[in-house]
Every structure is written in structure tokens, then in C-alpha cells.
């Protein structure tokens, strides 16, 4: 029987891992960030996320309850999308997931953060 050795190039991108081993929102630890400037996945405190559309929209409370039950058991599975403009964070998606985290009393939520400009922000507010 012959032995075959396969050599593959290995590329390692920079990343960070939460030292606690688990996030405070029931999700697995954060692994995120790339040096390429793309979106990062991080846990942000709820109070740091501005929700400009919350006053004009209401959530389906049955869906919020279902998400609360799911998050309590398996954690948040899909991060909410957040735009960072000049150091401030704006959330425009994940309204039900955000409210479920609030009602569960969780201090942070998993977010996919993209850098944006004031023009990007104006576009989302239309």
C-alpha cells in the first residue's frame, strides 16, 4: 500500500475570540474581524444600537415570543445587521431579534457591522 502526501497552502486571517468562552447573549463566542475591511461579527451592548425605525414600526409579538424561546435554548443564530457611522451604531434589520433580546434582559446582541457614511444612513432612513 502506498502513502500519498498532499501539501496544501495554509492562509491564516487575523481573528479574535472572546476570552470568556461564551457571549452574554447565549451565542457561541465571537470570532470575527478581518483585516480586509469587510463586515465584522461582534456582540454589541443593546444600548449602543440606535433603532431609528422603531417608532414607526411595530413587531409581531408572537414572532418575538418564538424568538425568545429559541434564543433561550440555542442562542441567537443569525446576527442583526448594523451600520457604523462616525462611531455610532444604527440597526435597521433584526427588529424582532432585538426586541427578544430586550425582553430576555440580555445585555448584548450579535451584530454584523458594516462601515457606512452619513449618505448610507440617509438612504436607510428613506
TrEMBL record:
Gene3D superfamilies: Conserved hypothetical protein from pyrococcus furiosus pfu- 392566-001, ParB domain
Residue sites binding ATP per the record: 94-97
MF terms in GO: ATP binding; sulfiredoxin activity
GO biological process per UniProt: cellular response to oxidative stress
EC class (word): oxidoreductase
InterPro entries hit by this protein: ParB/Sulfiredoxin_sf, ParB_N, Sulfiredoxin
UniProt entry keywords in alphabetical sequence: Antioxidant, ATP-binding, Disulfide bond, Nucleotide-binding, Oxidoreductase
Keyword Mitochondrion attributed: no
GO CC aspect terms: cytoplasm
Catalytic activity, reaction form: S-hydroxy-S-oxy-L-cysteinyl-[peroxiredoxin] + [protein]-dithiol + ATP = S-hydroxy-L-cysteinyl-[peroxiredoxin] + [protein]-disulfide + ADP + phosphate
Documented EC number(s): 1.8.98.2
Domain ParB-like N-terminal: 42-121
Sequence similarity: Belongs to the sulfiredoxin family.
Protein name listed in UniProt: Sulfiredoxin
Organism, as annotated: Arabis alpina (Alpine rock-cress)
Amino acid at each position: 500500500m502506498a502513502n500519498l502526501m498532499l501539501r496544501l497552502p495554509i492562509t491564516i486571517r487575523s481573528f479574535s475570540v472572546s476570552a470568556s468562552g461564551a457571549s452574554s447573549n447565549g451565542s457561541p463566542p465571537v470570532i470575527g474581524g478581518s483585516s480586509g475591511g469587510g463586515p465584522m461579527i461582534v456582540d454589541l451592548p443593546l444600548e449602543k444600537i440606535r433603532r431609528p425605525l422603531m417608532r414607526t414600526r411595530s413587531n409581531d409579538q408572537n414572532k418575538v415570543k418564538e424568538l425568545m424561546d429559541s434564543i433561550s435554548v440555542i442562542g441567537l443564530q443569525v446576527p442583526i445587521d448594523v451600520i457604523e457611522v462616525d462611531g455610532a451604531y444604527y440597526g435597521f434589520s433584526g427588529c424582532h431579534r432585538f426586541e427578544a433580546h430586550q425582553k430576555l434582559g440580555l445585555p448584548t446582541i450579535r451584530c454584523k457591522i458594516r462601515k457606512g457614511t452619513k449618505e448610507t444612513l440617509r438612504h436607510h432612513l428613506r
